[in-house]
Design goal:
Elements (H helix, E strand, L loop, with lengths): L14 H8 L4 H28 L5 H27 L8 H6 L14 H26 L4 H30 L28
Helix pairs in contact: 2-3, 2-5, 3-6, 5-6
Bound molecules: fe (ii) ion (2 copies).
């Protein structure tokens, strides 16, 4: 058994890593993907969403929903970074290097910065996040329950974020109603899945 392969008191190896490797997880590849996803959460969504939200003047409802998505991406960052270290990985020791490893394009302010253009960008960022976290789920399903659980919690919220921005963009750009099922979070950035808070239930 792989657990027995680590001698008592040996701190140079991790049973928590060896068991998932024995089940077929390419741990080095998983760490790279997690760092890319963490960079996307931090740089693209949390950082750039701040700029996008600032430019949603006149749309307090859009600002609030953008803020929820922004803060929940910060929760995703907080949730996943410890897992990178548990797996024996680390974050690059240079913010510029880290930024450039992001698995999603930077969500820079569009030109012109109209609400419709900003919402389009937000929507496409969420779609990138859904694809990236789904790839982590696929890679870990049935093999690495801990990473799978964390990624699935994040994915739950990314799917909600996509639905929110579809609703807002369809209305803003086309005056079309495409409901997301959304009602406001209890508090800004509630993150019910990634912070293990109670789900919306009046
Ligand atoms: Fe996120
Ligand atoms: Fe998101």
């Amino acid at each position: 058994m792989p657990e027995e392969a680590v001698p008592a008191g040996d701190v140079s190896r991790r049973v928590g890593v060896e068991v998932i490797r024995a089940r077929g997880v390419d741990v080095d590849k998983l760490i790279k993907m997690l760092v890319a996803n963490a960079a996307a959460e931090f740089a693209s969504t949390y950082y750039y969403y701040t700029i996008l939200r600032m430019n949603l003047a006149g749309h307090e409802d859009y600002k609030e929903i953008c803020e929820d998505a922004r803060l929940e991406d910060r929760a995703h960052w907080e949730l996943i970074v410890p897992r990178i270290y548990e797996l024996g990985g680390s974050l690059p020791n240079d913010l510029r290097v880290f930024h450039d490893q992001a698995g999603c394009a930077a969500a820079k302010l569009p030109d012109p910065p109209t609400a419709a253009n900003i919402l389009t960008l937000l929507l496409e960022s969420e779609r990138c996040a859904i694809r990236s976290w789904s790839a982590i789920c696929d890679m870990t399903f049935g093999k690495d329950p801990r990473t799978y659980d964390l990624a699935a919690r994040i994915l739950n919220e990314e799917i909600e974020h996509e639905a929110w921005f579809i609703e807002l963009l369809a209305w803003e750009r086309d005056k079309k109603s495409i409901p997301s099922g959304h009602f406001r979070r209890g508090e800004p950035g509630e993150a019910p899945y990634s912070k293990n808070r109670q789900l919306y239930n009046p």
